[in-house]
Amino acid sequence: MIIQVEDVSFCYRSTPVLENVHFSLNRGELLAILGNNGAGKSTLLKLINRILIPHRGTVRIDGRALQSMKRREIAQKVAYVAQRHEKSSMTVFDAVLLGRIPHIHWDTGRRDNEIVERILHQLRLAPYSLRPLTELSGGELQKVAIARALAQEPDVLLLDEPTNNLDLRNQLEVLALVRDLVRSHAMVGIVVLHELNLAMRYADRFLFLKDRTIFAAGGREIMTPETIEQVYGVPVAVHRFGHHTVIIPMEERLQEERLQEQEMKLRHSL
Fold it and tell me: pLDDT digit string (tens) for 93-103?
């Protein structure tokens, strides 16, 4: 196991956010963390990257506890893409080159530049390499942040809603690239997503957070209408179309259930 999250709990001040979270991942696996807003998904990513420190429990990478590792060691093994990214006058090339900092001792070398150039081509960012970040759209800036993380050549890649601000083509391209790199480079990928169909299309493992802890975790066998409805409170249908499984919200049934609830309340009030 490259990642082990062992009974991790965390509070913001005195408010519990996560309790007794426990899971592990092997190399080559891409995990989608799912759940409603405020379920603790982003917090969990920050705990795995030691941006936050668990109040209880331990996170291990290759058997080593994060608490025992120096920040540079963590940066050599873990890359993190946050939800929001600030613009600056730095060029796209230089912004992506920052991902090489954990591996640089004195100055950048030929290999560092080659890695950046390769990733810029993979993400179709090469034409923007000399453009300042201030001239990029939100979607282009998101891809630059992902490129910088990939330039770290991490063992663990953490992405917090990486498809935000991306159009459909770029959503598919970015997640396909992440999935392929996780497999070909024997990394672990952990991605927070709201779009269940993207998760079904690209992830190998799934973890639902609800009520501050893990509600369900596993492979595709847990992606059932029952589990999804219990987590989100929305009835869904799960269908197979060709090679892909699609999750469809059943709005009509939800409306019927709400009408029935209103009728029951009305009867009780009479």
Answer: 999 999 998 88
